[in-house]
Design a protein that fits this description.
alpha/beta, Urease, subunit C, domain 1, TIM Barrel, 2 domains, seven-stranded parallel sheet, 21% strand, binds zinc ion
Length: 426
Amino acid sequence: MFDLILKGGTLPDGRTADIGITGGTIAAIEDLSTAEAGEVIDASGDLVSPPFVDPHFHMDATLSYGIPRINASGTLLEGIGLWGELKQVMQPDEIKARALEYCDWAASLGLLCIRSHVDTCHDSLIGVEALLEVRKEVADYIDLQLVAFPQDGLYRDPTALQNTIRALDMGVDVVGGIPHFERTMADGARSVTALCEIAAERGLMVDMHCDETDDPHSRHIETLAYETQRLGLQGRVAGSHLTSMHSMDNYYVSKLLPLMAEAEVAAIPNPLINIVLQGRHDTYPKRRGLTRVKEMQAMGIDVGWGQDCVMDPWYSMGTGDMLDVAFMGLHVAQMTSPDEMRRCFDMVTNVNARIMGLEDYGLRVGAKASMVVLDAGNPIEALRLRPDRLCVIAKGKVISRQSRNDARLDLPGRPASIRRRHSAHS
Ligand SMILES: [Zn+2]
């Protein structure tokens, strides 16, 4: 007797199976046609996936678009300036309310694991306090991992170092940084060393905004990989964005990627954001500003797609749908072969979970019973359609349901309703 059986779904690897859930854990993945359960949900013909995972977000800034004004130039630097104005006037309750509203959106889309940076460059640390409360309040349905992020620069901002350490003392999970925003390359490199040493002392993971610029000489990823090896942090460090790599000299990159692979440093490009923020100083040709995704993957480096922003000083769009993120990544990185398209889906599920160090994740017996049913036949169709999430299960409980939303046609001799599904790529 199971608490819940999800019947007949198609798993991302193409198998069809029933999933039996007991006490918040996956208890069986097999033919359960004769088994009994408190509730049975029919997922026949639909894709059942482990939940979506976002390894890069800013939940203290989300849903603040237009407050106190919009980003007129559309650049990263105006966004940082605008955020600086906003954080002087933000109230803790507002931050919490916006974050919780975003978590509702995420839950309805099957996005159940999120790594959010939280700004530590404010002496009051109200963002940190608010997101620590949010982490607790959503714990039954979203695993929220927080990164202490000195947005204004560890050395550029006079109190950033002490406030970042205070945030870690308060219970923030991961050490962040922003070396390319320091005043000099030397200060940037020093900040990477200092922050990696803090992580090593405390046994924490590291995730830095790194080289988010079109300047090919921004090479802080080299220092990050070097310090990862020196301090024995292999497998616990990620470099987010890495957009300068797009513009780097090919010979230099041929030396850099093996260093990253040896150090087991993961990469988190954020395609929705990087395609709009980067290249703003170019005329034509205009660079895409996305890091070298396929080249890193070919070297065995873990690369996961991150979302970064939804309706904030840097980005006016977004819903929290990781399929939008993967869809943009697929286009910008030209990942269009069937294997590459499937990999894009894997990046917003399994690869991101690995980067975040989530141990009880996945569709396997003994893992946490969190999953999402999509109105699609397989991962490639899910990317193409970015369809409704028919059912979302978090830690054994159904937390969101959506009815199938077929279009009704009124055309003589044509079908009465359509779902835009197609049997290709099955
Ligand atoms: Zn970011």
